[in-house]
Amino acid sequence: MGTGTAYSDKDRAMALAGVFQAARLARDIARNGMCDAQGFRTSRQTLFDFEPDSVESIFGGSTGIGIGLRTMLRQFEQPAERDLETARYVVALIHLGDRLLASTDSMRSLHDDLTALQRRTQHFDLAEATTNEQLAAIYQDRISTLGPRIMIRGEPLHLQNSDNAARIRVALLAGIRAAVLWRQAGGKKWQLLLRRRRIAATSRELVDSLPD
Fold first, then answer.
1. Which of 49, 76, 83, 182 has a beta carbon 3.0–4.6 Å from 187's, enabling a disulfide?
2. Contacts with 169 (C-beta within 8 Å, 6 or more apart), sequence order
3. Are residues 210 and 68 in contact, defined by beta-carbon separation less than 8 angstroms?
4. What domains are defined for the chain?
5. What is the value of pTM for the model shown?
């Protein structure tokens, strides 16, 4: 997507839903040792889409971020039922996305690492767990050094499992990618406070278009 691309409320809502989806996936893995498999695969795949045609194409349409859209809408429409843990992860992901955007060297290094991994997956039949492990290593190398680490809460049994730990880092990396995308689409932190109804209305339209 070029720098001259004009972005819409729908684009920003979808990108932000990508952040919420990543936060929800990380939360679910930490709490339950599992998450929505299709949502996880969609979020992970966004890490390898370097030159997308549009925001929507990154997620394969609104269906690809159905979990994120529903989670975000619930946070905005039902304040009394807001999941504060998910909200905390979203704020942290946006913060790290800003840190990443501010560092040209970090952005370049992350892009190089992801490009190299993409080449390996194209030439070798890497197991899913191996791909997750390598993405988790990239997260630790390129993101953990940018600022305060995101402290994930959950069941110790699940958090101590190496496969779960890797998948949580993959989800967080995808969330940061979505946060960067949201910024690039014109997303601002103040919009989360002053345009909640507008974001919720756009999200509602997208959720209503999802298959049951």
1. 182
2. 135, 136, 139, 140
3. no
4. 9-208 (1.10.3890.10)
5. 0.94
